[in-house]
Amino acid sequence: MRITKANTKAVSFACKCFHYAKSVPTVQYAYNIYNSNDEWCGCIIFGGGANNNLAKSFGMVNGEVLELERVALNGKQEFTSQAVALSLKQLHKDDPLCKMVVSYSDHRQKHIGTIYQATNFLYLGISETSDTQYLYNGKWTHERTINSKKNRAELKSKLPKRENSNKFKYVYCFDKKLRKRLAKESLPYPKDKDLTSCSMQVESKTLSNRKGGEALSPEKDFMKSG
Fold this sequence. Notes:
By secondary structure, the protein is an alpha+beta fold. The protein is built from 8 helices and 12 strands.
């Protein structure tokens, strides 16, 4: 298995074809993954993430923390955990100022973070979110994207919306002192049975679907997505 830097075209194709979100995040570093037969397997992508205060939440500054935003692979790779490990190693070479990588596993997709567990990430528990997603062009879209539209007020008044999903939160530390500190806060890795408990922690308040008059709750939406 080998790794190279990925261009915009490769990133776009991998994200839209191989990842469930079907969208391209803001990219800072992206890597192509090739298997032992030299077949292209997709891309692994790092960036600043959707949370502008990501670094601040750890008492750090912007640039010291990146988010592993996409593991957009087609399944031809021998081991996904090996692909992630290679990308982390290359990221550390390309950006020595980065001290830590954060990643999230989405319980709506029945992900518990198996690849992060196999790559020696620390598990920090369930990340509670308070932001909102809107059903835009057939897919749930982050509020920041909607706010970038010229007709954002009209869209936000008409589109169905929901609370963003709670997720399992993992961190990978390049800095040994930082890892030692966060290891004291880490928890045992979650298992498949913990998917239910995560879904139960999604805020239960109902958000109005003003377009169709139907009320959407996170619990109903979780069952529909399964």
